[in-house]
């Protein structure tokens, strides 16, 4: 089977149900299916999937990646700190916003891996994103430390 491209995924021909699915379904896939259903909360799976998605995005700059991240309703990303080989990306209005707080739980690793994959593609070098804050943990936003 040939690989799918991100552009091909935009071809939606649903006459009755439109082009969106409920956030509850996404949450169920992410939190019940992956986080609860896979070993180690699905960390290696979500990292692999997220990187692959990020690398496939049709973006050529960090700014384009952040804009697409928001237009896909993943969240509203903002670079809040920038150093020579590191940026801190804060994500407001993440998919987990509003879920019950569970101290010690960071559940948005897939979304960080999407950023990681996109940044790796754009910068043409290995990038690592680590989730450091999460709404589910009781933090006011989700946040990622992205090392280049």
From TrEMBL:
Signal peptide: none annotated. Pfam families: V4R. Coiled coil: none annotated. Gene3D superfamilies: Trafficking protein particle complex subunit 3. PANTHER family: ARSR FAMILY TRANSCRIPTIONAL REGULATOR, DNA-DIRECTED RNA POLYMERASE SUBUNIT I. SMART domains: V4R. This is 4-vinyl reductase. Residues 86-148 form the 4-vinyl reductase 4VR domain. SUPFAM superfamilies: Ligand-binding domain in the NO signalling and Golgi transport. It comes from Fredinandcohnia quinoae.
